[in-house]
Amino acid sequence: MPARPDCALPTLQMTSFPDSFTLVAGSPSQTFLFALPTEQVRSGDASATELFELGAVMLRRKFYPAATKFLLQAIERWDGDDQDLAQVYNALGVSYVRDGKLDKGIAQFETAVKLQPGYVTAWNNLGDAYEKKKDLKSALKSFEEVLLFDPNNKVARPRRDALKDRVQMYKGVPVKSKDR
């Protein structure tokens, strides 16, 4: 896979594009440039990698429905190894979470860490998504998993410590059920 962006929720980095991409300017209200594999996408000949990179660009530009569309297409066409596929699922999870679809995002992060158990970025994203969902125990487990692979992780350590205190504080407090 040419570009390996880390898709942690706060940032997404994209460093290179294949030569087949062309630059397209946005509307006057959106003064940015981004790369599109225009001909391949239109003709349906875009590779899974090109679709992933296009999805990552759309994600970075906050075009979440477009990002989701291209990332789902990348997954359908994927013929590479599972460790790289985990990055596509992670990016798709980021797109869903940023678009307000927490449960769908969590499912994608879960798939990413099943495919690549040591993928700390996906574990951090999973913990973040669980915390947003107010599932503090699952968030805590996710951040603890990060620390098994990377004991000095600067994202997970403080989050885990804060969650430990919050989970302990709520121990024994009845939780409201959606069924009630």
Notes on the protein architecture:
With 180 residues, the protein is mainly alpha-helical. The chain has a single domain (22-170), classed as Alpha Horseshoe (Serine Threonine Protein Phosphatase 5, Tetratricopeptide repeat). The chain contains eight helices and two strands. It has helices spanning 38-43, 48-60, 64-77, 82-98, 102-115, 120-132, 136-149, 156-170; strands at residues 22-25, 33-36. Strands 1-2 form a two-stranded antiparallel sheet. Strand 1 and strand 2 form a beta hairpin. The protein is elongated and about 55 Å long.
Task: List the SSEs and their pairings.
Blueprint (H helix, E strand, L loop, with lengths): L21 E4 L7 E4 L1 H6 L4 H13 L3 H14 L4 H17 L3 H14 L4 H13 L3 H14 L6 H15 L10
Antiparallel strand pairs: 1-2
Helix pairs in contact: 2-3, 2-4, 3-4, 4-5, 4-6, 5-6, 6-7, 7-8
Please outline what is shown here:
The protein is mostly helical and 180 residues long.
Rg, Å, rounded: 18 Å
Give the strand order, joined by hyphens, for the main sheet.
Answer: 1-2
CATH class assignment: Mainly Alpha
Outline: elongated
* Major beta sheet summary: 2 strands, antiparallel
Number of strands: 2
Mean pLDDT: 78
**What's the CATH architecture?**
Alpha Horseshoe
Structural class: mainly alpha
* Number of structural units classed as domains: 1
- Percent helix, as a range, is 55-70%
- Structure annotation, total helices: 8
Order of helix and strand elements from N to C terminus: EEHHHHHHHH
Low-confidence stretches: 1-35
CATH superfamily: Tetratricopeptide repeat domain
